[in-house]
Amino acid sequence: MTMMKPNHKPLSKRSLKASEMVARDIVTFITEGGYSTGDMLPREQLMQEQFQVGRGSLREALRLLEVQGLIAIKPGVSGGPIVGEASATGLARTLSLFFRMLGATYEDVSDALLILAPLVARRAARNGNRDEIAKELQEVLEVSECDGQTATESTRNAAQFHTTLNRLNGNPVLALLTEALGALFNEHIVTHSDASGILPHCRNDHRLIADAVIARDSDNAAQLSYDHMKSLIEFHRTRVPAIFNEPVQWR
């Protein structure tokens, strides 16, 4: 006998829980209060008074933010909540959970990077802050092109080029999303493959992309970025082909 799926009605939009509203208010408190990464937030008792909530709701709110990496809890007598960072790695972890629920594969992640990477390069080439862009790209290239680097250092410096380019596109949402997908690709695929064979090509590609961005040649910057990302994906596909068809795992 075939099992039939229950005919559930769509879930109505639920109201925020008390802890979620407190978490939202804490983020507002951080951003509008001038707090920076690493700063201590007020102690628990003061936060209860500040947000007019009970201990349970406050602790659940802090836990919600801690899971996202937006705060950290320092243990001990002198401890308490510390401001974290809206990092790409934190977003990548959350996205990987949602992608897993969607049944998305690493091929889908790669395809998304092929769409976003050229867009970022094109926007960076059109960014009006020319002196800042030239300075930052030259600095990151000088570091990545230094002799005597280990494979780990070269990989980290190559990733830093993309972080810089993403940020220079001028849109923080696009920058964080692209960086998060790149972090997911690196953590889930690159770490399972030997990237040393492609690192010299990456350095050359990065130089060409940077030159096009600095020259404000947006079409060339976008095409070079696409070609670079495509070659990077295909390189790792030859090393770990099976993983591209696997569903994204939550890590």
Automatic annotation (TrEMBL):
Ranges of residues in domain HTH gntR-type: 16-86
Gene3D superfamilies: GntR ligand-binding domain-like, Winged helix-like DNA-binding domain superfamily/Winged helix DNA-binding domain
Domain of life, per lineage: Bacteria
SMART domains found in the cross-reference section: FCD, HTH_GNTR
UniProt keyword annotations, A-Z: DNA-binding, Transcription, Transcription regulation
Record GO terms (molecular function): DNA binding; DNA-binding transcription factor activity
Protein name, as recorded: FadR family transcriptional regulator
Keyword DNA-binding (UniProt): yes
SUPFAM superfamilies per UniProt: GntR ligand-binding domain-like, Winged helix' DNA-binding domain
Organism: Parasphingopyxis marina
